[in-house]
Structures are given as C-alpha cells and as structure tokens.
Amino acid sequence: SKICVVRTVDLEDRARRPRVAGHLILRRRTRRTWCAARVLVALSVAVSECCYFLFNLFKTAFASSSSREAMAQSNSSDGFLSQPKGFSTKAIHVGQDPEQWNSMAVVPPISMSTTFKQHGPGQHAGFEYGRSGNPTRDVLERCIASLDNGRFGLTFSSGLGATTTIITMLQNGDHIVAGDDLYGGTNRLLRNVALKMGIEVDFVDLTNMQLVEQAIKPNTRLFWMETPTNPLLKVVDIRAVSEIAHKHPGIVVVVDNTFLSSYLQRPLDLGADVVMYSLTKYMNGHSDVIMGAMVTNDEAVYERLKYLQNAAGIVPSPFDCYLVNRSLKTLALRMERHKSNSLAIARFLETHPKVERVLHPGLPSHPQHELAKRQTYGHSGIMSFYIRGGLEESSNFLKALHVFTLAESLGGYESLAELPSVMTHASVPLQQRQELGITDGLVRLSVGLEDVDDLIADLKQALDKA
Ligand SMILES: *Cc1c(COP(=O)(O)O)cnc(C)c1O
Ligand SMILES: *[C@@H]1O[C@H](CO)[C@@H](O)[C@H](O)[C@H]1NC(C)=O
Ligand SMILES: *[C@@H]1O[C@H](CO)[C@@H](O)[C@H](O)[C@H]1NC(C)=O
C-alpha cells in the first residue's frame, strides 16, 4: 500500500546488493573455509554498513546544502531566483530505475492490468487493484513529487479531480479561505459544490495581508491560492500567506501551481503544505492529456488524500500517466522557451501604440515584479494585455491571428489567444469581472514554443487590423 512514497530505495538497494551476493557465494563454500568465510562476510558487512552510513551522511549533507541553495536568494541574470542544480536529471530519472522491471526496460512498460496476482491471500507484490495503485502511475507520482522537493505525490483524473479530493478532506461546518481571482472551474466547485456540502468559503484578495489575517475563523481548515492568478497575473506572497495561516494549527495551505509548473515555482520550499496541479497544462504541455496531481511533505495529509484517491476513485489511466511522464522529460526545456518567448512578446507589446497595458510578472512595470523575482525562477508563457478600445477591437485582433490559435486552455507547445470576458471567465458575474478588471479589452495569451519572431510578426499584423 506504500505505493507513492518517494523512496530512496533504488540507491539503497545498490548499497545493499553486495551483501546479498556475498551470502549466495557463501552457500557454495565448503566447511573448511566456513570460518574464513564468516570472517570475510562479517568484514564485508561491516564495510558495506560503513559505506552505507557514509553514503547516507553524504546524502543528508547534500540534501541540506541543496535545500539551503534553494532557499538562498541568489539572482540569475534576469533577476529571478537561479535554479539549483539537478532539476532535469530528476525529471528524467526519478522513479525510472530500469532494474525495478524484470525486463529492465529503460522506458517502463505501460501496465494496463486492472488486477495483480497475489502470492497468497493478502500477500501481494505492492499492487492489488488498478484504482488503488498501478505501476505506471506509481512511476509518475514519484517523479512529480521529486520535482517539487516533496516526499509524496498523487495523481488524479483531472486538475479539478485533485481539487475535489482535497476538498473532500473537509467536512460540514469547515471554512475555506480562497483567493478572489481563481481558475473558473475552481471557483465553480467552491461556490456550487463545496457550499452545498455545508462548507463555508470566503474569497479574499490574498495580496493584502491584513485581509488574509482577518479572513481566518476558528473553523478555517484550508487556504486555497493560485499565483500568478488567472487572467490578471496577480502574484501572491506564498511565504507570507503560509506564515499567517500556520499561526493557527490545523490549517492546510494549498497552492495551485498550474501556471508556473514545478520548474518555475516550488511552493513547498516556500512554506505551503500541498501543491496542486492541473497537469493538463504546462506539466504535460502537449495539450493531449487531462490530469491532475498533488504533492506534499505532510505524511498525515498524504495518507488522507491517498485514502480518498482510492475511496472516491478519481484516478487517471495508465496510458495518460505514461504520456505525462514522457512530457516531464522536456519540462525544463519547454519552460525556458515559454519564459523567453513570453518576455520578448511582453516587451514588444509594451511598446505598441494599440496596447494600453501589459500584465507580465517579468516586466518591471508589473506591480509585484520584485516579489515574482524573489519567489519564482521566472515566468511562464501566460500573460495578458489590454488592447485600446473594447469588444470590437479585441475581436478584430483575435480573428486576424494566424500563428496564435483562438482557443481556451493554456500551457501547451502551441500559442493560444483568448478573450476572458467572453470565453474562460464568462461565468464570473459581470460586477465581479468589472471589479477585477476583466474587461472586453483584456486579451490573454498562452505563448507557446514557436519561433518568437513569427509570434511577434503575427501579433503585429493582427494589431494593425484591430
Ligand atoms: C485548468 C486549470 C485547472 C483545472 O484543471 P483540469 O485539468 O482542467 O481539471 C485548475 N487550475 C488552473 C490554474 C487551471 O489552469
Ligand atoms: C539580487 O538582486 C538584488 C536587487 O535586485 C540585490 O539587492 C541582491 O544583492 C542580489 N543578490 C545576489 C545574491 O546577487
Ligand atoms: C517516462 O519517460 C522516460 C523516457 O523519456 C523514461 O525514462 C521513463 O521510464 C518513462 N516512464 C514511464 C512510466 O513511461
């Protein structure tokens, strides 16, 4: 049942292997060499224990120095935090040891089997039934956890499936403090579903620490935040909000990290308890899988969510797990390109006469540019801008695009553009939209991986027609 624990077993097994081999050789020895062999074994056990101890010592020292490195406020050339070493290596190797499969397959097999043979009643080899655990899912969950410097990972059939499971941890009478600028589906789930379960929800501007403090009630159990927000790119100070929430025992702080991915922001390092993902977006990045995930270091929260993952049955298919696992290998490469493409586009738009204002946390004009540099490793391909005029101008612009596709969603390799007031955020009540600044002139872009010159040329010709 310990299916998704991020184990260091792979390495430990290697350290132990010589001992096992030693025992096998021992059996073949004659009685005359028995004594000498025992001495040899004792010695080799002592040596391997010693190596194992030193290895662990080294590992601990390395882990703490790398977490220190992660905490250090070092700056890269663009002013954002600079990446500690090893992200891509983890993305390519964690959970992937070929020696865990009898076939030694380097790309692990997709295990479609829904059931697993047992040695005897109740004696299984780690897997019983596909809903409660599957080898392909296991590999992915371990890999995702490691990318967030987390111990435990779980995947779900969609991002909202992950959110539903997290909310199911609560009960009638509990209270949630949520950000006021959330993904539409999360907003709908909290307003229309959680409320019906007798859970209270307050939507709060989490960039205002005084409001955050005031929002906490004796029955508050969960903080739900997104940063940067959608579509206004407001940045929430994860460390500050977590500190306020954690003054009250029993509050779990969740960060929906979909917009940046584990490559550009690692909320557990900043004090959050749980990271949630719509893997559908950047983590998979190829616009061909709907899936969600959560990562935590808190064993009690993990056990509860693992129980609910199985009990509620919101699990992904092994084939989709395989696809996301494959996509993670290029996460770092993709995010670097999303980052540089979107910043170049933001700079271009900022100088264009038909553009009123650009919202991109990487621009010095963004009100929380300094905070973004302090808590992230850069910004992804999501950005918004206000076109001068209203619905007519924005519609003309969107219809004139050739390389950008007019569509909802985000985080794929392809560039998308959309109008939140009419498309993704149409369900937000008009008054709330106006208060937030979601006007008919606000265009959201998900900048993809194409050649940036082609993207800029496309925006330029479409702006001419706006
Ligand atoms: C898409 C999205 C979700 C929901 O994820 P699904 O995989 O579509 O269920 C949640 N949060 C954010 C920020 C998203 O962009
Ligand atoms: C990072 O940049 C800030 C200002 O942007 C500066 O004050 C600080 O000293 C820099 N830190 C490092 C480690 O270079
Ligand atoms: C995921 O993909 C990589 C190859 O890019 C491989 O190392 C890994 O084992 C794969 N895992 C699964 C479950 O397919």
UniProtKB/TrEMBL annotation:
Keywords associated with the record: Amino-acid biosynthesis, Cysteine biosynthesis, Membrane, Pyridoxal phosphate, Transmembrane, Transmembrane helix
Gene3D superfamilies linked to this entry: Aspartate Aminotransferase, domain 1, Type I PLP-dependent aspartate aminotransferase-like (Major domain)
Modified residues (N6-(pyridoxal phosphate)lysine): K281
A Pfam family of this chain: Cys_Met_Meta_PP
Pathway where this protein functions: Amino-acid biosynthesis; L-cysteine biosynthesis; L-cysteine from L-homocysteine and L-serine: step 2/2
Parts of the chain that traverse the membrane: 35-55
InterPro entries, A to Z: Cys/Met-Metab_PyrdxlP-dep_enz, Cys_met_metab_PP, PyrdxlP-dep_Trfase, PyrdxlP-dep_Trfase_major, PyrdxlP-dep_Trfase_small
GO CC aspect terms: cytoplasm
EC number: 4.4.1.1
Coiled-coil residue spans: none
Transmembrane helix recorded as keyword: yes
Cofactors demanded by this protein: pyridoxal 5'-phosphate
PROSITE patterns: CYS_MET_METAB_PP
Gene Ontology MF annotations: cystathionine gamma-lyase activity; pyridoxal phosphate binding
GO biological process, one term: cysteine biosynthetic process via cystathionine
Family: Belongs to the trans-sulfuration enzymes family.
Name of this protein: cystathionine gamma-lyase
Source species of the chain: Anopheles merus (Mosquito)
